[in-house]
Design goal:
Blueprint (H helix, E strand, L loop, with lengths): L2 E6 L16 H16 L10 E7 L42 E5 L19 H7 L4 E7 L1 H14 L3 E10 L3 H13 L3 E2 L1
Parallel strand pairs: 1-2, 1-4, 2-3, 4-5, 5-6
Helix pairs in contact: 3-4
InterPro entries: Isochorismatase-like_dom (IPR000868), Isochorismatase-like_sf (IPR036380), Isochorismatase_Nicotinamidase (IPR052347)
Enzyme class: hydrolase
Protein name: nicotinamidase
């Protein structure tokens, strides 16, 4: 069965030094990069993926999602603004192996990669189905926010879904643990 890897929001603003940093973000970027290059080179120990895609926060004016006084639940500091260095992939992550990038949240908050679309406007779920994908692995930033939302939507879309927790970074231990419990309860495999 065709399998996809979905790399969630490994962007400068979500890594150390960014406007909304998650501890371990740069490490996760490097580990995903290593996995992608082993996959691309088809090395003997590489995982088997038929397609590899990425999601990006891509904010122009997301309304109340941005705030000068964020509550970190419904509102956040300005991050991943289109055209800024913060929106770019982290330098530890080479985007060359990606088959496609899905952009989300231009004018609204968007946590799930399944809210994302290609530059041509194709939604992630449709793009995966057009390639016969049935199994989805998810990794990236942050375990307790966008990874969680992406994995839950993947499962609800009918994909057999697995989260690669070693290649994820979470904001906080308690919310990460709660997200893992929620994902497992929704039928997501936790690896």
């Amino acid at each position: 069965m065709p399998r996809a890897l979905v790399v969630v929001d490994v962007q400068n603003d979500f890594c150390e030094g960014g406007s909304l940093p998650v501890a371990g973000g740069a490490r996760v970027a490097a580990e995903i990069n290593d996995l992608l290059h082993r996959w691309h080179a088809r090395s003997g120990d590489a995982p088997t993926y038929d397609v590899v895609v990425a999601t990006k926060d891509h904010h122009v004016d997301p309304g109340h999602h941005w705030s000068v006084k964020p509550d970190y639940a419904e509102s956040w500091p300005v991050h991943c603004k289109v055209g800024t260095e913060g929106a770019a992939f982290h330098p530890n992550l080479d985007p060359q192996p990606f088959d496609e990038v899905f952009y989300k949240g231009e004018h609204a908050a968007a946590f799930s990669g399944f809210e994302g679309r290609t530059a041509a406007g194709e939604p992630l779920a449709d793009w995966l189905r057009a390639r016969g994908v049935e199994d989805v692995d998810v990794c990236g930033i942050a375990t307790d926010h966008c990874v969680r939302a992406t994995a839950l939507d993947s499962a609800s879309e009918g994909f057999s879904t697995r989260v690669l927790t070693a290649m994820c970074a979470g904001v906080a231990e308690d919310t990460t643990a709660a997200a893992i419990t929620e994902m497992a309860g929704a039928g997501v495999e936790i690896a």
